[in-house]
Amino acid sequence: MGATTGADKFGGCPARRADDSGKYQPEGTGRAMAIEKCINEYGVDEVIFEEGSTGRELFVVLDGQVEIAKVDGPNKTVIVTLGKGEFFGEMAVIDGSARSATAIAAAPDTRVMRINHARFVYLVSQQPAFALMVMDALSKRLRASNARHFGTAATP
Question: Residue 132 above 70 pLDDT?
Answer without folding.
Answer: yes
